Every structure is written in structure tokens, then in C-alpha cells.
């Protein structure tokens, strides 16, 4: 596999703190929902000594593990994960909160001679962490402040960043991501998504703060209202949550309960697909002059690779066997 030469790809077996005057090195893996960020980060651990810091604004909260698609313990393969399911679901965890929590974590990871890998699709979390200019410590609304549409040259240049960053932006075609999102939501429903949402459901709740902001909570509000009002005293009600919701979806006929459930699930899919598009647009802000797409094999790709080889920016990276 060919990849751009970066300090991060040459760290295996090296002393990460060899130059005390240089900026700390970090890897930032970005990409839309479904692009494979977490899997890539965990795979890196087989080549480099790393620890992962989660930068997903919903996965930082405790609860809704299925809905927010947290990496299960058995899939983490022993790689340390930080800020994953650690924040109370009822508080607002802003971009400033993330920055203030992540900076000391990066220092701790470095003290263990490991490479911090930041993983997530919440672009304003990542911007707040790596840029010195997007957050004012005294801003009344730090999250809104970091979302200002600042010119890329004001914060995207390496000398303006808090760390020596290697940005890895994963990309995929929108049709492929849309298909993945639709399939993933169906799998989540089968895995107990609705039971999770029922546990956090509260009539007339505030869906603008904390974990209730997650896509997949508000979308089921009308359905849960109807279910509670119509079925609360029915012995059949627990079937929806405690047995197999797929039986209701696959049942013949289209009664009101099934129709409302299907509508809610379609809303989750639609809003997740919209999120994918917002994430893809946001990632473009972090792409610099040396961006090149590894998955393409056309004439422009070959020309770019040839130029990078001649300039010394490209090396062949062979994973350890």
C-alpha cells in the first residue's frame, strides 16, 4: 500500500518524546458516519503503540450504546479508549468541554510513550482541539464560537495548530454510505435500539441538550406516546421491547402501531443520511494542499502519486507480518 510520508507512519519502535521542543504528534481520523473510522483506528494499534480518544459528540455520553454505535468492548481488542461513554447523559458537553478534557489526556498518553489517535465525526470537537483560534476561553457560547466560518488559512496551517497533526479523512460515495446507514439502522432496531430509547424517553423532554440530542431519540417520540396511551395496560405491550420487535415489523397488515413504528424508523434513516452529508462537507475544511485520494486509480491519481514520489512526500508502507 502506498501512503504519504508523515512522521506518524515512522513512529513504530521510536521514542515518541525524542524532541521535547517539537509539538506533540497526534493522528486525527475523520469521516462521515459509516466510513470505518473506528475500525481503522483499532487496526492501527497492530502497527503502532496508540490510545484512542473518542471525538463523537454523542458517544461521549453514558447510555444508548446501540443507538450511538459505540465500539463494543470485544471489538476494541484491548486498545485503550478515552471519552467513550463517560459523560452524564443529562449534561451538555460542549466543544470547549471536549477540548479541556482531551488536552490532558493527550499529555497522559504521550507520557506513556504512546501515540494519541483522535477518532470521530464531530468536526467542531476536532477543530476546537487542534486549532488555537476557534475557541475563546471566555466565550459565553464556546460551541457556537468554534463553528464560526473562519478562513482555512487562519487555522488550517501546520504552524497555527496546537499539535503536529496527521489528518486521515475517510471518504466513500454517498450512495454506498446511504445503503450502509439504512442497513445499520435496521440492525440497530433488531439489536434493541427501541428498548434503549424507551428507557431514556420522557414526555415533552428537551431534545436540544445532552444525550437526547442523538438521532434516533426524538424520532420515536410520537410512536412512544401512542404506544403508552394505547397499550400501557395491555399484556402484549412488553413484546415490543423484551421479545422480538421484528415480529411486529414482519406481521401482516398495517395497523396504526406498525405504521407509526415504520415511520419513526424511516425518520431515523433520513436524519442519519442528512448527518452524513453535513459531516462530509465539514471534512473538506481540513483538507490541505497535499491531499490525495488513495482509492482512485485514474490518470490524475497516477500523476499525483508520481509528483509525490519525486518530491519525497511518498513512501511505501508495508504493515508488519
Overall pLDDT score: 76
Number of helices, counting only DSSP H or I runs of 4 residues or more: 11
Which regions are unreliable across 5 or more consecutive residues at pLDDT < 50?
1-15, 138-155, 313-321
Strand order of the largest sheet: 4-3-5-2-6
- How far apart are the first and last residues' alpha carbons, in Å? 14 Å
Task: Spell out the helices and strands N to C.
Answer: EEHEEHEHHEHHHHHHHE
Broad structural category: alpha/beta
The CATH topology assignment of the largest domain is Rossmann fold
CATH architecture of the largest domain: 3-Layer(aba) Sandwich
In total, the number of strands is 7
The CATH superfamily label of the largest domain reads: P-loop containing nucleotide triphosphate hydrolases
The rounded Rg comes to 22 Å
Beta fraction of the residues?
5-15%
Number of domains: 2
Helical proportion, percent range: 25-40%
Give a written overview of the molecule:
The chain is an alpha/beta fold and 321 residues long. It has 2 domains: 2-172 and 279-316, P-loop containing nucleotide triphosphate hydrolases (Rossmann fold, 3-Layer(aba) Sandwich); 176-275, Crystal structure of tRNA isopentenylpyrophosphate transferase (bh2366) domain (Helix Hairpins), CATH 1.10.287. The chain contains 11 helices and 7 strands. The protein has a 5-stranded parallel β-sheet, with helices on both faces. Helix 5 crosses helix 10 and helix 7 (221-231) runs antiparallel to helix 10 (256-283). The chain is elongated, with a radius of gyration of 22 Å. The two termini are 14 Å apart. Mean pLDDT is 76; it is low at 1-15, 138-155 and 313-321.
Amino acid at each position: 500500500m502506498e501512503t504519504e510520508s508523515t512522521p506518524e507512519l515512522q513512529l513504530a519502535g521510536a521514542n515518541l518524546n525524542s524532541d521535547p521542543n517539537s509539538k506533540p504528534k497526534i493522528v486525527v481520523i475523520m469521516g462521515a458516519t459509516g466510513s470505518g473510522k473506528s475500525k481503522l483506528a483499532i487496526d492501527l494499534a497492530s502497527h503502532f503503540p496508540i490510545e484512542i480518544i473518542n471525538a463523537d459528540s454523542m458517544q461521549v455520553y453514558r447510555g444508548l450504546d446501540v443507538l450511538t454505535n459505540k465500539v463494543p468492548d470485544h471489538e476494541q481488542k484491548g486498545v485503550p479508549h478515552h471519552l467513550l461513554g463517560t459523560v452524564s447523559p443529562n449534561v451538555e458537553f460542549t466543544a470547549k468541554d471536549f477540548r479541556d478534557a482531551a488536552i490532558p489526556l493527550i499529555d497522559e498518553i504521550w507520557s506513556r510513550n504512546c501515540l494519541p489517535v483522535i477518532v470521530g465525526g464531530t468536526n467542531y470537537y476536532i477543530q476546537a482541539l487542534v486549532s488555537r483560534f476557534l475557541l475563546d476561553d471566555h466565550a459565553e457560547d464556546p460551541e457556537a464560537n468554534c463553528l464560526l466560518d473562519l478562513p482555512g488559512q487562519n487555522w488550517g496551517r501546520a504552524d497555527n495548530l496546537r499539535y503536529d497533526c496527521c489528518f486521515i479523512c475517510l471518504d466513500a460515495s454517498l450512495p454506498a454510505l446511504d445503503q450502509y446507514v439504512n442497513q445499520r439502522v435496521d440492525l440497530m432496531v433488531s439489536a434493541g435500539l427501541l428498548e434503549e430509547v424507551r428507557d431514556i424517553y420522557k414526555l415533552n423532554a428537551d431534545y436540544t441538550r445532552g444525550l437526547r440530542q442523538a438521532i434516533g431519540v426524538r424520532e420515536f417520540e410520537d410512536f412512544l406516546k401512542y404506544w403508552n396511551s394505547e397499550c400501557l395496560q395491555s399484556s402484549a405491550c412488553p413484546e415490543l421491547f423484551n421479545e422480538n420487535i421484528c415480529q411486529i415489523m414482519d406481521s401482516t397488515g398495517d395497523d396504526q402501531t406498525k405504521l407509526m413504528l415504520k415511520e419513526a424508523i424511516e425518520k431515523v434513516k433520513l436524519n442519519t443520511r442528512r448527518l452524513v452529508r453535513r459531516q462530509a462537507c465539514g471534512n473538506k475544511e481540513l483538507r490541505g494542499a497535499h491531499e490525495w485520494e488513495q482509492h482512485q486509480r485514474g490518470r490524475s491519481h497516477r500523476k499525483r502519486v508520481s509528483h509525490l514520489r519525486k518530491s519525497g512526500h511518498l513512501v511505501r508502507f508495508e504493515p508488519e507480518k
